[in-house]
Amino acid sequence: MTEKHLSSQFDSELNTVSSRVMELGGMVESQIHQAVYALAQFDTDAADRVIETENRVNAMEIEIDRELSSIIARRQPTARDLRLLIAISKTTANLERVGDEANKIARMVKSIIESGSARALPSTELRIASDLASGLLRKALDAFARLDTAAALSILKDDDLIDKEFDGFVRKLVTYMMEDPRTISASLDLLFLAKAIERIGDHAKNIAEFIIYIVKGADVRHTSMQDIESALK
């Protein structure tokens, strides 16, 4: 992920912390997959596994943050190295928040299972959105490992697909609630799930933006796609 430095120890520290970020990413991906499985199969055991992983994710985020603080204090990096460390810190925070969203999904799935009221609602579309969000996070982690700005740009564009899925799902839920007010409670539960899935896509988009920040030194948040493409030329 990183280029060689004059200090081989510094280089080793960067590689170590980068590996830890990838490990955290894998843990969070597993949470998402388990949460989606819990939703698809109405499986409380899978939901429980997601919830149990939450403490490990939180602990690893704190550990990585401490490692980064130590590296910055001891090495006093400049330019691209400092951007890299800052971006790693922000990426770690976003991964922890993805874990939070997976945890929310798992807890809500358990609530839906206990109520027994959601099986007739359009959860299939929700699983499609979940797969899109999970795939986007995997692409973001792969792009981060390679510092691939072309892949990062593709991720920024793909995030629109998740937003469209969310909008379409909301419209369908509104129709269900209007046609049968008895579905309002369960529909609101699924709306909560849909929003959590959309947020996973947003965090993957954030990671893609950090890649561009590392490589180009440009903060592309709240920037039009045309301007981002121009910055990458």
Give the SSE layout:
Elements: H1 8-41, H2 44-75, H3 79-115, H4 123-146, H5 149-179, H6 184-216, H7 225-231
Helix pairs in contact: 1-2, 1-3, 1-4, 2-3, 3-6, 4-5, 4-6, 5-6
Protein name: Phosphate-specific transport system accessory protein PhoU
Subunit structure: Homodimer.
Keywords: Cytoplasm, Phosphate transport, Transport
Could you give a quick summary of the protein structure above?
This is Phosphate-specific transport system accessory protein PhoU. By secondary structure, the chain is mainly α.
Descriptive account of the structure:
The protein has 233 residues and is mainly α. The chain has helices at residues 8-41, 44-75, 79-115, 123-146, 149-179, 184-216, 225-231. The protein has 7 helices and no strands. Helix 1 (8-41) runs parallel beside helix 3 and helix 5 packs antiparallel against helix 6. The longest helix is centred in the middle third of the chain and has 37 residues, at 79-115. The two termini are 21 Å apart. Belongs to the PhoU family. Plays a role in the regulation of phosphate uptake.
